[in-house]
Design brief:
Blueprint lengths: L2 E2 H6 L5 H5 L3 E5 L2 E4 L6 H12 L5 E2 L1 H7 L11 E5 L9 E5 L7 E4 L2 E4 L1 H11 L2 H15 L12 H10 L7 H12 L6 E8 L2 E10 L4 E5 L6 H13 L3 E5 L1 H5 L1 H24 L1
Parallel strand pairs: 5-6, 11-12
Antiparallel strand pairs: 1-3, 2-3, 4-5, 7-8, 9-10, 10-11
Length: 278
């Protein structure tokens, strides 16, 4: 956990010499972390709050999303804070002037942060369209709110464009990016979190699916279980479904991804038409 150096010295836990030595890293003025701690987005967010807590600041933007359990920003994004007065921006810290009160502020990980809805609205206003949709999806899914409710205030038209593409069923940022790649590639909209059911119950729940073509499109993250996925694919295959799986790297190769799914849709439609005519 980040800590204030002056408090650690005043309490007798550390000396000034120890604080300046190799055991600790200074993230912001008077805010330190042990040198063996990995500097993650969460650690940066916690450290940023210690910096601005006394001047009425709150954690905002990607940092707020991180503390709210809806991680959606770049790994090396600077910590972001919202402050009513002047706080100097510095390396690793993005400072925005403003306030959050009432329903716009909440407590997350022991810090004051912009609420999930306020954070979603702020990010939707200023991120590029795709990354804004990713952020809104993550926050709406984690905190179970309807994205349509954030269309208000400044830049409402821009937020409305983001909301029109949002889907709170998405369970990860890469799943959203996969869905958006298909959308911007001109393919029909798939159903998110589609449940395949047979007479014995639920066979599988797919990231994205084209039920008419019995085609599922899945994101394979680093934590997916190969054996479990294979068993599920076999069960779905027995019901006539085909599963196309894509990694993070493949999703970023958007042209090839869209072409592959387009070909699969075409093949599945022709296959069904041939079967119907025979």
């Amino acid at each position: 956990m980040p800590f204030r150096g002056t408090l650690a010295v005043a309490s007798g836990r550390l000396t000034r010499g120890q604080l300046r030595g190799p055991r600790f890293v200074r993230l912001f003025p008077d805010v330190y972390v042990p040198a063996d701690v990995e500097i993650t987005p969460r650690v940066r967010a916690l450290a940023a709050f210690l910096l601005v807590e006394r001047c009425g600041g709150v954690v905002a933007g990607y940092s707020a999303a991180e503390l709210l359990g809806a991680s959606c920003g770049p790994w090396h994004a600077p910590a972001e804070v919202l402050v009513p007065g002047h706080v100097r921006a510095r390396a690793g810290l993005l400072v925005r002037r403003g306030t959050a009160a009432g329903p716009d502020v909440t407590t997350a990980a022991g810090c004051l942060a912009t609420s999930a809805r306020r954070t979603a609205r702020d990010l939707a206003r200023r991120l590029d369209l795709r990354e804004a949709v990713v952020a809104v999806d993550a926050l709406a899914h984690r905190h179970r709110f309807d994205p349509a409710g954030i269309v208000a205030g400044p830049a409402a038209d821009r937020v409305a464009r983001v909301v029109a593409l949002a889907d709170r069923l998405a369970e990860s940022p890469m799943e959203t990016r996969l869905r958006l790649a298909l959308h911007f590639g001109g393919l029909p909209a798939p159903q998110a979190q589609y449940r395949l059911v047979d007479r014995d119950g639920v066979v599988a729940r797919f990231d994205l699916a084209y039920p008419a073509e019995r085609l599922t499109v899945e994101y394979d993250g680093e934590d997916h279980e190969d054996a479990l996925d294979r068993r599920r694919d076999i069960r779905a295959g027995r019901l006539g479904w085909y599963t196309a799986r894509f990694t993070k790297h493949e999703i970023r190769q958007e042209t090839a991804l869209v072409a592959a799914v387009r070909d699969l849709l075409h093949h599945r439609r022709n296959r069904d038409a041939t079967a119907a005519g025979s």
